[in-house]
Amino acid sequence: MARTCVFCGAGVGLTREHVFGDWLTRIGLDLSPVAYGAGPLNRLMRGYGAGRPFRQTVRYACGGCNGGWMNRLEEVAKRVLTPLILGESGSIHPADHGAIAAWAQKTALVAMLVSPEDDRARGYGLPESEYHQLYDLRDAMEPLPDTQLWVGRYEGRARTASVWVVPLVLKMDGENELDQPQGYAVTIVVGQLLLHGARMTTVDLHLELSTVLGWAELWPSSRPISWPSGEPVDDATFIAFSEGTELRGTTPHLALRPWKRATALEESRAVGSMVELPTLCGEHVVYYPLVLVDEAVHHRFYAFITECECEKAYLIETELDGAHFKEAGTPGAIADLYGTLPGEGYVIEDDNGRFCCKRLLNRLERT
């Protein structure tokens, strides 16, 4: 993107816009240093060091936007969401639904600008039209058309604040995945508040969604919301949840799925009795037993931990279409996360040695 305001197109007066509003540093949250990072879903995030939370900024918004309509959204968010972020029971009045949904969308759009321009030039991020359309709705204080949003509770410990944007595709029964996504899921964590939704970006594509977790719908809705409601999300279920796997459409034979090119690991290959799998760093490979592929065909899925030569540990889960990255970090942190996964431990022994894994409950059992 050129160095103009990504929202209104102004070429002067660019300012620093916080990914998360600075007001979050003054409401009583833990401000211990946290690690910053950003990047494509199927690659290791680029680290941006550590520091106090809610300090990360981008220089892509002009002073008029930053101090005008964007600030008005932050003021509504501060007034309405503060008790929820701190884990206190609360409510959201229908008059504030549109502004909170627009705040969530604005936050996701700004977060996508953290990554370097070369990453976005290769397709990581959201189209410029999303920014322009949200600016056009600035006076209405509503999100973009064909946006749905729910509000729930985060009970994990790994995230003080986080934004995930996952491309989505519509898939008919028996049909191949389309070449381009038709929308995207947004997941925002701040303290104990979790906002989750989807926007369909394909013109004239209207899809009514629901979530199986029993959360209150924030947008479009005209009903008062009491918080918390429905099932909470913890660290063991966060990654799969953020991919929109709990969203359901009302149209038979039409499913909403994460766009595989954005969420799956690179193509693997069989090497004897093992599967060779490229790691997220893009430089190394790891191996897991080929028998787990056959298990996946029969809808029996497993999780396992592996480590590459970068000394980075990975949590990987098998699914019908292959192995999927779920988390990366230090060996100790990944081992702790693995331990929280519900399932039964197995040891596979062959000429390659012992391989430890855990058979997972199926998605219906896990939710």
Please characterize this protein's 3D structure:
The protein has 367 residues and is an alpha+beta fold. It has 2 domains: 14-258, no CATH class; 265-366, no CATH class. The protein is 24% helix and 35% strand. The protein is built from 10 helices and 22 strands. It has helices spanning 63-67, 69-85, 94-111, 117-121, 128-136, 235-242, 260-263, 291-297, 331-340, 363-366; strands spanning 14-18, 34-38, 46-51, 57-62, 90-92, 147-153, 161-172, 183-190, 193-200, 209-211, 216-219, 225-227, 247-249, 254-258, 269-271, 274-278, 285-289, 302-307, 313-319, 322-329, 343-350, 353-360. Strands 11-6-9-8-7-14 form a 6-stranded antiparallel β-sheet. The protein has a 5-stranded antiparallel β-sheet with strand order 20-19-18-22-21.
Radius of gyration equals: 21 Å
Mean model confidence by pLDDT: 88
The helix tally amounts to 10
| Strand percentage | 25-35%
Spatial separation of the terminal alpha carbons: 40 Å
**DSSP summary, beta strand count:** 22
Which descriptor suits the 3D outline?
globular
